[in-house]
Amino acid sequence: MAHVHSIDTGASHGSVGSYVIDFIFSVVLTVAAFGVVTQQLMGPTESIIAIAVLAFIQILVHLVFFLHMNTSLLQRWNVVAFGFTSMVAVIVIEGTLWVLNSVGPTT
Amino acid sequence: MLQKTLSLNLPGSHDDHGASNTVLGFWLYLMTDCIIFASLFAVFAVTGNQFAGGPSGKDVFELPGVMMETAILLLSSITFGFGMLAAHKGKSTALLAWLGVTFVLGAVFIALEIHELSLLIAQGYGPERSAFLSAFFTLVGTQGLHVTVGLIWMTILAVQVIGNKKVTQRDLTRLTCLSLFWHFLDIVWICVFTFVYLTSVV
């Protein structure tokens, strides 16, 4: 038991390296997102899709490197809760937009 | 999540379960917080183009300021991470130093946010001006309130660590919860700068 723990703890709270990797990733992704908008490299729709994708990648990077999410057995309930919450969040946001864009005379 | 890290100093101890349950419970609270933010983002998505003749995001958002806030919050995430590494090694002085740096960065972030929002209110673009501004103030204000609570929490934990003169197991559990909270707020901010500021300016 103790032996298993001592192995697990090594990976679970990250290291200087993993924090620095996340930081560099985040800086690159953030600068890219601001760059897409300020430099107006693409049309509005393409820009929004591009920054949404960049945000999605950055959130995943944060979850793995800062919040240390992984698929190990000990993390199972955290991941299950997170998966359920993500589903609820998507339903709330997409559902709201879908319904409200369908009811009004506008758009 | 991080519950397994808490078993660090007590192999086979019964407290092991207590600490891991605490962190799992806190994680579940964060998930409910996620739903609050999801609702606020949904509101902003719906009302973000209802200007009622008032200014649009393009008129009022200052991207350099947002860029600054983003950089500061991101930096505070990595400094908190370094603080946690020090805490796991039991180095309380290094932990307190990193917490201090994180606190200053968080405080500067809040100061910038308050400055930005009060400037809007001074121009007559307060939350009462339009649905867009109501949704904007609520969303950004809620995130700012969370960061402020995080700063108060950080101060309390720092005082406890100073009082104990070392990083106890209980401190480590509490610090782990705060670090989840802090990194979670950074994730919320990614969504804020992407879906509120950048999409409004595009």
UniProtKB/TrEMBL annotation, chain A:
Assembly state and interactors? Heterooctamer of two A chains, two B chains, two C chains and two D chains.
Q: Give the matching NCBIfam families.
A: CyoD (TIGR02847)
The cross-references to InterPro entries, in alphabetical order and at most eight, read: Cyt_c_oxidase_su4_prok (IPR005171), Cyt_o_ubiqinol_oxidase_su4 (IPR014210), Cytochrome_c_oxidase_bac_sub4 (IPR050968)
Function text: Cytochrome bo(3) ubiquinol terminal oxidase is the component of the aerobic respiratory chain of E.coli that predominates when cells are grown at high aeration. Has proton pump activity across the membrane in addition to electron transfer, pumping 2 protons/electron.
Its transmembrane ranges are 20-42, 48-67, 79-100
Membership in a protein family: Belongs to the cytochrome c oxidase bacterial subunit 4 family.
Could you tell me which Pfam families the record lists for this protein? COX4_pro
Q: Which domain of life is it from?
A: Bacteria
Q: Where is this gene product found? A: Cell membrane
**What protein name does the entry list?**
Cytochrome bo(3) ubiquinol oxidase subunit 4
Keywords assigned by UniProt, alphabetized: Cell membrane, Electron transport, Membrane, Oxidoreductase, Transmembrane, Transmembrane helix, Transport
Broad class of where this protein is predominantly found: membrane
Membrane topology of this protein: Multi-pass membrane protein
